Inverse folding.
C-alpha cells in the first residue's frame, strides 16, 4: 500500500467525528468534531479539514445492526459518503462501524470527544482490513 493520509468520519445527525491517519503506520488520531445543523454537515469546516490535511482518500463508518440489518443511520451515513465523494472528488471507502462508539467509550472512559475517537476506531478498522487483504 502506498503511503497516504486519510481522513475518517463517524457520521451523526448532530455531530461528525473526524480522525486523521497514515497508511504507512496504520494509526489514526482524533482531530475534530464537525457540527450538523438540521442534519446538514458544516461543509465549510469539512473543506478546511481537507485543505489542512490533504488526504488521498476518505473513510466513512456505516452503521449496521449486529445481525447485519440496516438501520435509519445506515442510509444517512451512505448519503454522507456519496456527498463527500461528489463534493471533494476523492475516493471514499465505507467501513462497518459496529461497536465503534462502544470501543471509543472504553478508550475514553467518558463521552467527551467520543465522536472523534469513534472516527479514529473506524479508520483503524479500515487500516486493519487493508492489511488483511495484502
Amino acid at each position: 500500500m502506498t503511503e497516504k493520509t486519510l481522513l475518517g468520519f463517524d457520521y451523526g445527525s448532530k455531530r461528525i467525528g473526524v480522525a486523521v491517519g497514515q497508511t504507512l503506520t496504520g494509526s489514526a488520531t482524533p482531530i475534530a468534531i464537525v457540527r450538523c445543523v438540521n442534519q446538514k454537515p458544516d461543509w465549510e469546516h469539512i473543506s478546511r479539514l481537507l485543505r489542512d490535511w490533504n488526504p488521498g482518500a476518505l473513510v466513512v463508518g456505516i452503521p449496521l445492526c449486529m445481525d447485519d440489518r440496516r438501520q435509519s443511520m445506515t442510509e444517512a451515513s451512505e448519503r454522507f459518503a456519496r456527498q463527500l465523494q461528489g463534493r471533494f472528488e476523492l475516493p471514499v471507502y465505507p467501513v462497518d462501524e459496529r461497536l465503534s462508539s462502544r470501543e471509543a467509550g472504553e478508550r475514553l472512559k467518558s463521552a467527551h470527544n467520543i465522536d472523534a475517537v469513534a472516527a479514529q476506531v473506524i479508520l483503524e478498522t479500515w487500516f486493519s482490513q487493508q492489511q488483511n487483504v495484502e
Notes: The CA atoms of residues 104 and 110 lie 9 Å apart. The beta strands are 5-10, 15-22, 27-37, 40-41, 57-62, 92-96.
